[in-house]
Design a protein that fits this description.
Its cofactor is Mg(2+). The protein has 342 residues and is α+β, with helices and mostly antiparallel strands. It has 13 helices and ten strands. A six-stranded mixed beta sheet has the order 1-2-3-4-6-5, with helices on both faces. The protein has a two-stranded antiparallel ribbon with strand order 7-8. A two-stranded antiparallel sheet has the order 9-10.
């Protein structure tokens, strides 16, 4: 196999699996990419062609979409909908939808692109009638695109778009339909409502948080924090007083920075001198969906759960999110629990 052939096959796998991020991705896909790299697949070319650059027309629609986007919040999930109208079929609207999802910080997006001419075959040419009769009541081509982040539970665009002849995956699907502009708007509204009905009621963080926490007093020496981290395999420790009132967090990175500044002598200094006192926290009633978004955005990786008096009752970690999202094997979760018990 030549490097060019390996590159083309690797690009196909990246496209089909979202660069190994789609839920239907298998270990075989990853193994195949590894093998193709061994055959000389050109990573520079793969990086260039897997990044979807928008054309000028797509960028204009993206800008318009950010202005006209309709937003609604359903059980803590940010749902966006958008109807765009153009004069001709435009390739790559899925790229516009993906960028819109990211830039607008949405969790779910349903986009309808209405155009007068639809997809044209090579032999079909534009006529003057296309411009004359392209009115609001004329049947038009409607491209429907649904996108949702992997962390959103319940959403299944494949099911929603099935009646419209569409297809795809649960969180990335599309459909093509004939309708007037008014009908297209109604279809979009119906899809948004159906998607909203799929989103389950949020569960509180207390159903997923870790309660067997290893904590440390602010008066303890920094050496004790390092020892506890090594003993339990943690990178973060909550710092609490004698009443379990949260004082902040101490991380392995904090200890490394402290050692660089003061050498070995810093290990005799109290933990409280190096603690993150502005730690982001949540209450027991906080929806887990909100908490997992905060964990993703929080560089520390631990989200303490505290009551009204800031008493520490648990924490949400990246591993908790992985287990809750069923992205962490059950055997690994059981191993973690046994380790915590010991």
């Amino acid at each position: 196999m030549t490097p060019a052939e390996a590159t083309l096959l690797a690009l196909a796998i990246h496209s089909d699996t979202g660069s190994l991020t789609f839920e239907q991705t298998t270990p075989r896909d990853a193994a195949m990419l590894t093998w193709l790299m061994e055959q000389g697949a050109i990573q520079r070319s793969i990086a260039e062609f897997t990044h979807n650059f928008l054309t000028d027309e797509q960028q204009q629609l993206l800008s318009q979409g950010l202005t006209e986007l309709q937003r609604t919040r359903v059980n803590g999930v940010e749902v966006g909908s958008l109807l765009l109208v153009g004069r001709s079929f435009l390739k790559g609207m899925s790229n516009v939808a993906s960028d819109l999802l990211d830039i607008a910080n949405l969790d779910v997006l349903i986009l309808a692109y209405v155009n007068c001419r639809g997809r044209r075959g090579k032999k079909k040419k534009r006529t003057m009638d296309d411009d004359v009769f392209c009115g609001p009541e004329q049947l038009k081509q409607v491209s429907l695109i649904g996108r949702a982040r992997a962390r959103v539970d319940g959403i299944d665009f494949r099911e929603l778009f099935a009646d419209l002849g569409g297809g795809g995956h649960a969180r990335a699907a599309s459909a093509s339909h004939k309708a007037t502009e008014a009908e297209a708007e109604q279809i979009l509204n119906d899809l948004v409502q159906q998607a909203a009905n799929q989103i389950p009621q949020p569960k509180p963080v207390t159903e997923f948080m870790t309660t067997d926490l290893v904590s440390i007093f602010p008066t303890a020496p920094l050496s004790q924090a390092l020892r506890l981290m090594g003993l339990h395999g943690h990178q973060i420790l909550p710092v609490v007083d004698e009443n379990d009132i949260l004082q902040g967090l101490i991380t392995a990175q904090d200890i490394k920075l402290a050692e660089r500044k003061g050498g070995m002598e810093v290990f005799a200094t109290p933990v409280g001198a190096w603690v993150h006192q502005d730690a982001v926290t949540v209450s027991p009633s906080t929806p887990f969906y909100t908490a997992q978004k905060m964990v993703a955005e929080n560089t520390v990786g631990m989200l303490p759960v505290v009551d009204e008096a800031r008493k520490l009752i648990g924490a949400v970690t990246r591993m908790d999110v992985l287990i809750a999202r069923r992205l962490w094997p059950e055997k690994m979760a059981e191993h973690r629990d046994r380790t915590a018990d010991n």
